Amino acid sequence: MQTGKVRFCALATMTLGLGLTGCFGESILSAGAKVAGGQISELTANEIKILNETVVGLLASTNPGFTAEPLTDAQASAISSFFKANDLNTIEDFEQLQQTAESNPDSLEGLDELAAA
Length: 117
Known about the structure:
Elements: H1 2-20, H2 28-36, H3 45-62, H4 73-85, H5 91-103, H6 111-116
Helix pairs in contact: 2-3, 3-4
């Protein structure tokens, strides 16, 4: 019985370590690096889902009664496409997006796809 627990703990630790370091491709670390490095438009749909799940989990753990549905694959994909289509990489880009949305919303790309998701 003890050997089974040790194997399970070793496997869980290895899997968690590989996931956090990005050995499975996408991780909270790779997503965070893109956000911090001004490469938000390079976020994949999976990285957007990882960020969403992390934030929702954090908010739920610190705010009793907080609930939120995680993003679907389609929503995360639409967000990723929207970021790319509008070259959104930094906070300044999002501020410019807000100004553009107020003055000329038809110039934004991907709004219909984003709304449909």
